[in-house]
Amino acid sequence: MSQSIDLPTLDTLTQELAAIQQTGSKRIALLGSRHVPITHQQLIEMMSYALVLSGNRIMTSGATGTNSAAIKGAMRADPNLLTVILPQSLERQPRESQEQLRQVIHLVENPENDHLSLGEASAICNREIVSRCQQLICFAFHDSHTLLQTCQEAEEQRKLVTLFYFD
């Protein structure tokens, strides 16, 4: 009886090693759940702040929770190194997010998705964010379908993916 083991290819390992060793700035997407405890939000904010201070460009979306924390940290470090891509128009975002989002210099709205459900628009938005980044850092729960799908798509595009689970 033999078992097959799914090992990464040499090409995949080489690409991941090169991405980890890259010392220059990167385009890093920070995405995650809206339902995040305040202590976790503070850690995400600090991570975003440190990444921007290191010269990295942060990309995220406009939701509360993880994305809001990433925006806060990046804005404190250097607002010019933050890009926020919304799944729909600014007016369709939660009221508590709109004030923060109006301060973002590089804000991309997608009003053409206003007719879609938030889930559908978020999936499209996440794909756009992943297409623009070199690395994805994601904070999710094991049942966060849209986020887990985004991580899988990023891996298929050979992006460096770091996934943290809250549960």
Automatic annotation (TrEMBL):
Signal peptide per UniProt: none
One record GO biological process: methylation
Top-level division of the source organism's lineage: Bacteria
MF annotations from Gene Ontology: methyltransferase activity
Alphabetically ordered keywords of this record: Methyltransferase, S-adenosyl-L-methionine, Transferase
PANTHER family xrefs: CYSTEINE SULFINATE DESULFINASE_CYSTEINE DESULFURASE AND RELATED ENZYMES, PTHR32183
Protein name, per record: DNA recombination-mediator protein A
Naturally occurring in which organism (per UniProt): Gloeothece citriformis (strain PCC 7424) (Cyanothece sp. (strain PCC 7424))
